[in-house]
Amino acid sequence: xxxxxxxxxxxxxxxxxxxxxxxxxxxxxxxxxxxxxxxxxxxxxxxxxxxxxxxxxxxxxxxxxxxxxxxxxxxxxxxxxxxxxxxxxxxxxxxxxxxxxxxxxxxxxxxxxxxxxxxxxxxxxxxxxxxxxxxxxxxxxxxxxxxxxxxxxxxxxxxxxxxxxxxxxxxxxxxxxxxxxxxxxxxxxxxxxxxxxxxxxxxxxxxxxxxxxxxxxxxxxxxxxxxxxxxxxxxxxxxxxxxxxxxxxxxxxxxxxxxxxxxxxxxxxxxxxxxxxxxxxxxxxxxxxxxxxxxxxxxxxxxxxxxxxxxxxxxxxxxxxxxxxxxxxxxxxxxxxxxxxxxxxxxxxxxxxxxxxxxxxxxxxxxxxxxxxxxxxxxxxxxxxxxxxxxxxxxxxxxxxxxxxxxxxxxxxxxxxxxxxxxxxxxxxxxxxxxxxxxxxxxxxxxxxxxxxxxxxxxxxxxxxxxxxxxxxxxxxxxxxxxxxxxxxxxxxxxxxxxxxxxxxxxxxxxxxxxxxxxxxxxxxxxxxxxxxxxxxxxxxxxxxxxxxxxxxxxxxxxxxxxxxxxxxxxxxxxxxxxxxxxxxxxxxxxxxxxxxxxxxxxxxxxxxxxxx
Length: 613
Description:
The chain is built from 28 helices and three strands. It has helices at residues 2-21, 33-44, 49-54, 70-87, 97-118, 141-149, 160-170, 173-190, 196-208, 220-223, 231-264, 280-292, 298-322, 329-338, 348-362, 366-369, 385-388, 423-430, 435-444, 450-453, 458-469, 481-506, 511-521, 526-538, 545-564, 567-573, 584-593, 599-611; strands spanning 378-382, 394-396, 406-410. The longest helix has 34 residues, at 231-264.
């Protein structure tokens, strides 16, 4: 299978090279643009079969591409350059409005991916990192495979062919792991290695996944075999899954764990930031642009973070004064962390029910804020035990056809320690109207080219979700001071990220200093602060997208309200002369209807919308 994959990738790279060699000289007909969009999507889809599965494209459910090879990276570069050349044959000025947006997005995406590859980053990954660091404690195929193979995620397990396809995918894992270990070793020789603190977390993850037979996470689909399967199919599949666990999965996870523990950990580094690595500064500057989709420098973002930390602290002090709390903010944080009133739960189900109650409370007010809502349903689930210790609360998008709901995952290590103050803002961010509305509406919009329906830009996507946290009062939440303090604490958390992420990767901030800065400015625990800081160490720059995106969306909302309502001065001094054309629901609908995009492109789109009303 490995030879087959390499041959296919080499052929794709050769084909891409042939495409570049003979570009037509004539300007392309605008009517051909849709074919370019569709062609790009079809060409990239088999290279990312796990992403295709998550998007509801089940054609490649039996595939696991070995993305750890030089041939794969070369094929990506060839593909991206081919379609950048094809896109360049169109006269943008002759395109319609939404086609111009699509043109701008694809051009931006292809140019960004090529730039990342030239810097040695694995741009096919969800979180771009050096190809010499194949995975970490937060992200990568060994963890993703567990989510898919447990039988409760994106990989379908409904029919006998579904079960057989998963076996095909599993059989590619040993070859992937061998190549990944080879890349780790290349990194060791080049001085490109993970921080020791992260490797220590990766080893038990691998150990947890190397269980065999019924103890294995990957036995889940067999434990839930559909009742309508024949006895013969059940017997065959049970034996096949047991064999796959014994021969493909468990030994591979054991090999990865042994390598990390015995060979890699002794060579792991003491430093925390990307700037300590060869070419690390250039990579981080790229990642800042990639995740914020802006031209802001790390220094500018650091300064924004400091200002936001100060602003939010002032608002928290204002609420503290209203509460007649006589201690300072740090004492208020301690009270919110330790007082039993904020830890009312005893079981994981009780925590999940608490989130469902939040959804019910704010549901009546959603129609005031949104005219268009998604068809995809939402479920609230506890995060799987094997990854809960290193996971944050998160949203997993549903299938575009509605066959799989969107899922809000909540890690609950000890329900008795689960605190209530930030639950409302967390639900607004990860579930409704945050990621669930944005991602579902985007996927459900079949008028968009597929590369836009299934796109992700963290600055807009995470910026939108953080912006949604600020809608609590308007949605009937934050009725008590402590949930509002929880929301402010979460916003402070995103402001702190600007300081510590840039600090870690450009200012020699140590892991311990970053953890202490978080503890000094947030209502958090040492364990939670540690997990967060180690996340920023693992995926540099990603944490910047939230606050930068939120600030931009709030700026666009304020600008649209000022422009479309005539402005406060005109309303006060010339009443009746200006029609208020501003509706918040219309603003939200326009913002979401075309999916995520780089912030500059979004700003131009929203400006045109307001100008044309």
